[in-house]
Amino acid sequence: MSLLTTDRTRQFEAVALPHLDAAWNLARWLLRDDQLADDAVQEAYLRAFRFFDGLRGESARPWLLGIVRNACYDWMRQNRQLADQVEFDELRDSEAAAFSAFAASPERGDPARQWEQRAQGERINAAIDALPAVYREVIVLRELEEMRYEDIARIAGVPLGTVMSRLSRARALLRESLRDERPGGEADEGGRTHHGHV
């Protein structure tokens, strides 16, 4: 290995590794499977390393997450039938994981309150998981990764207006899903149901 290659590797690691958690989070939400997310992130990082010289003065995070997104969509296109099976298995597994996490929780306090908070988190996660991928990605990037609209547009390869309309639609779908799922939600004077911030 030449000194030049070693320097390039070091530079790439310094730029890319701080974004590994965000990369995995995006892949996990898009593919709905931990192992597939690991594989997609590994593939994306290999692609990113290959094209690292093309990164010029841009923010590395949106550049890298765009590559992760593309790796995920490539996998979904190539494995359409398997993706449906993963989706089904993941729903079952996440319910089991939620129950075991609650049962093993070392937290102190009111068990009923803890259960309600955990159940609400599970409802929100399930509602996000049920969104089509184009809506799921904008919600994850904006609400979970707290990315700017301009960066989301770069990652998704769409105009800023498209990001904003997808985000608006995704939020509406989440509100609708959470309202429909919760019978007898508390309504305010305007008839709106309260479910917390989405």
Describe this structure in words.
It is a single chain. By secondary structure, the protein is an all-alpha fold. It has 9 helices and no strands. The chain is globular and about 55 Å long. The C terminus is likely disordered.
Shape: globular
Structural class: mainly alpha
Average pLDDT taken over every residue: 78
Percent helix, as a range, is over 70%
Kindly report the name of the CATH homologous superfamily.
PhyR, sigma-like (SL) domain
Major β-sheet annotation: none
Number of helices: 9
Describe this structure in a few short sentences.
The chain contains nine helices and no strands. With 198 residues, it is an all-alpha fold.
Please outline the helices and strands:
Blueprint: H1 3-16, H2 20-31, H3 34-50, H4 60-78, H5 80-103, H6 111-130, H7 133-144, H8 149-156, H9 160-181
Helix pairs in contact: 2-3, 2-4, 2-7, 3-4, 4-8, 5-6, 6-9, 7-9, 8-9
List keywords for this structure.
198 residues, disordered C terminus
